[in-house]
Design brief:
The chain is mainly α. About 80% of the residues lie in helices and about 0% in strands. Helix 1 (about 5-10) packs antiparallel against helix 2.
Length: about 270
C-alpha cells in the first residue's frame, strides 16, 4: 500500500466531508515527517514509507478514530434548536408585540407597563442568546453552512423588524431625558424609564446581531477555504474570539432581564 492508498482508505471513513481536505493535509504531513525520520536513520525510501504508515496505525482504525473525532451531529442539532428558538422569539415579537403592549399602555397602572416592557426585553434577550449559542457552535464545528445561516438570519431579523415594526413601538420614541437623575432601581421601576431601557435594549440587540452577521460572513468565506485546505487560520482564530464578546453581552443582558422581572414580581407582589 502506498501513501495515496493509505490516505484514501482513512478518508473513506470520514462522514463529514467538510474535514476531508484538512485531514488529508495532516496525514500527508505526518507520513512525510515520519518517513523523513526513518530515512535519516538509514532506511531506504520504500522501507521508511512503510514504517511511517505502520507507525501511524491501521488506516481503517485511524479512519474510524478520525470520524468519531469530527462527528458534530449533536452540536449541529443544538444549533438547529437555537435557530428555531431565535425564529420563534422573533415571531412572537413580530405578531404579538402590539397585544403585549396594548394592555399596559391603555392603563395607568405602572406595573402593567413594566411587565410589558420586561416581556419584550425577554424576547430580545432570547434573540441575542440564541444568536450567541449558534455562533459558538459554528466556530467549534467550523461548518460553513451554519456560519452562513447565522450571517443571513442576523441581517434578516433586524431588517424585517424595522420594516414591520409593531404599531405601538413605532409610535414610541427614544427620549433619554427621563433617565436623568434616576438610579438603576428607579429606571427599572418607572414605567417611562423602563420603556426607554427596553427601546435601548432592542437597538443594542439589533446592533449586535448586525455586527455578528458581518463577522459571520467573513468567517464563512474562510470556513469554505478551510474545507478545501486553503484557509487563513489566523483570520479564523481572530473571528472565533468574537464569541467572547457575545458571551459577555449575554451575561450583561441576563442581569438586566433578571432585574427587570424582579421589579415586576416586586410590584405585583405588593
Amino acid at each position: 500500500m502506498n501513501s495515496k492508498e493509505y490516505v484514501k482508505t482513512v478518508l473513506s471513513h470520514i462522514k463529514d466531508k467538510s474535514y476531508l481536505a484538512i485531514i488529508e493535509q495532516e496525514l500527508n504531513g505526518h507520513i512525510e515527517d515520519r518517513c523523513g525520520y526513518y530515512k535519516d536513520c538509514g532506511y531506504d525510501e520504500e522501507t521508511a514509507l512503510n514504517m511511517a504508515m505502520e507507525h501511524i496505525g491501521n488506516p481503517d482504525d485511524v479512519g474510524e478514530q478520525m470520524n468519531r473525532l469530527h462527528d458534530d451531529k449533536r452540536l449541529t442539532t443544538i444549533s438547529v434548536v437555537f435557530k428555531c428558538l431565535e425564529i420563534i422569539a422573533w415571531g412572537v415579537f413580530a405578531f404579538a408585540a402590539d397585544s403585549i403592549l396594548s394592555v399596559s399602555y391603555s392603563l395607568s397602572f405602572t406595573g402593567y407597563a413594566v411587565r410589558a416592557n420586561s416581556t419584550i426585553a425577554l424576547l430580545f434577550f432570547l434573540l441575542l442568546f440564541s444568536n450567541c449559542a449558534e455562533f459558538c457552535v459554528a466556530v467549534k464545528t467550523r461548518k460553513s453552512q451554519l456560519m452562513q445561516s447565522i450571517a443571513y438570519l442576523g441581517f434578516f431579523i433586524p431588517l424585517m423588524t424595522i420594516v414591520n415594526m409593531p404599531d405601538l413601538l413605532r409610535s414610541l420614541s427614544i427620549d433619554l431625558e427621563c433617565l436623568k437623575g434616576l438610579n438603576v432601581r428607579e429606571m427599572i421601576y418607572d414605567a417611562d424609564a423602563s420603556t426607554q431601557l427596553m427601546l435601548l435594549f432592542m437597538l443594542i440587540v439589533f446592533g449586535i446581531m448586525l455586527l455578528t452577521s458581518a463577522v459571520s460572513m467573513c468567517i464563512y468565506s474562510e470556513f469554505k477555504a478551510f474545507e478545501k485546505g486553503k484557509a487563513k487560520t489566523e483570520i479564523i482564530y481572530k473571528g472565533e474570539k468574537y464569541k467572547y464578546f457575545l458571551i459577555g453581552a449575554c451575561v450583561l443582558s441576563l442581569a438586566y432581564i433578571v432585574a427587570s422581572f424582579g421589579a415586576v414580581i416586586n410590584i405585583f407582589g405588593k
